[in-house]
Specification:
Number of helices: 15
Number of strands: 13
Distance between the termini: 18 Å
Radius of gyration: 21 Å
CATH superfamily of the domain at 225-332: Magnesium chelatase subunit I, C-Terminal domain
Structural class: alpha/beta
CATH architecture of the domain at 225-332: Orthogonal Bundle
Largest sheet: 5 strands, parallel
């Protein structure tokens, strides 16, 4: 049994995550909710899929996160002719030394920014599967570990747009959360124009946390307390999506694991030492919706998987009150 985090460790998570969010919001105007969930995915050691139309700031969000943490960054422009070795790296033969040398690809970084991931072929997209699930990659029979923390932030255009490929189900399931940037409010858009009128605010964004510090915070979030009732609630939500007749594909067991990890990160960011059902409910849509496939009946009725998920969350019973889910209740 792992040791529960101390009050000082929880405070460190809350303070540092707040500093990262403040730094990002100097670039991202009027979307504090989006920034909050992005940082939660980082601290939960997951991967993030940002989906929306071109020009709304998907890549800017990813770059703002990367600039806020003093870490290595890899950048991949996904195109139809991109090869798997362009991501993972390649082994070359050095004639002068008569030895083979491995040249690592852009996935060997703490934060990997993938632009328009659904413009690459399914074969190239699949090259990320091992990286995202096991934090390692295998090239020419040799397995290489990737650095910690390892976070893929991929952007994607809506599937209806020209020149896009649908992400395979296995690929979507490895993304902890999917977020939609959306258009900013009128006031936020005016603020954005003022900020970027003379200079790019990204150029002046300085790191507020080191990679080692973030790695420690990830471990703190993993150790946060989640009561048996909260874990049961996560399982109940996942199971309800599998039984719903309006869904052809429900949430996987991996989805439940990632939902709990994200809820722990969100709770720690709020300065709490335990997970509330509210944390799970807030994250249910960004963590689960992109993994679900509507049934034929749902498509004919024009009902999206997101609407079905909201109905599932609304009718799934919630465990007891906050006093029943704290570590003090468990020990006392």
């Amino acid at each position: 049994m792992h040791a529960l985090p101390t009050g000082e460790e929880i405070e460190d998570v809350a303070t540092t995550s707040s500093a990262i969010r403040d730094a990002m919001e100097t670039v991202i105007s009027g979307r504090s909710d989006l920034v909050r969930l992005t940082v939660a995915v980082l601290l939960a050691e997951g991967h993030l899929l940002v989906e929306d139309v071109p020009g709304v700031g998907k890549t800017t969000l990813a770059k703002a996160l990367a600039r806020s943490v003093d870490c290595t960054v890899g950048r991949i422009q996904f195109t139809p002719d991109l090869l798997p070795t362009d991501l993972t790296g390649v082994t070359i033969y050095r004639s002068h030394s008569q030895e083979f040398e491995f040249r690592p690809g852009p996935v060997f970084a703490n934060i990997v920014i993938g632009d328009e991931i659904n413009r690459a072929s399914p074969k190239t997209q699949s090259a990320l599967l091992e990286c995202m699930q096991e934090a390692q990659t295998t090239v020419d029979g040799t397995t290489y570990r990737l650095p910690r923390p390892f976070l893929v932030v991929a952007t994607q255009n809506p599937i209806e747009m020209e020149g896009t490929y649908a992400l395979p189900e296995a690929q979507r399931d490895r993304f902890m959360a999917r977020l939609s940037v959306g258009y900013p409010s009128r006031d936020a858009e005016v603020e954005m124009l003022e900020r970027q009128e003379a200079a790019d605010p990204l150029a002046h964004l300085a790191p507020v946390a080191s990679v080692d510090h973030v790695t420690r915070l990830v471990d703190v979030c993993r150790r946060l307390y989640a009561a048996p009732g909260v874990k049961q609630y996560v399982v109940d939500l996942a199971d309800a999506t599998r039984r719903d007749p309006m869904l052809r594909l429900g949430a996987s067991p991996r989805a439940g694991i990632q939902l709990l990890r994200a809820a722990k990160a969100l709770a720690a960011m709020s300065g709490r030492d335990h997970v509330l059902p509210d944390d799970v409910q807030e994250l249910a849509e960004p963590v689960l919706a992109h993994r679900l496939l509507p049934s034929t009946e749902a498509r004919l009725a024009g009902q999206a998987a997101t609407a079905t998920l909201r109905a599932v969350v609304a009718r799934t019973p919630v465990p007891g009150s906050a006093r029943d889910v704290s570590p003090r209740a468990a020990t006392g």
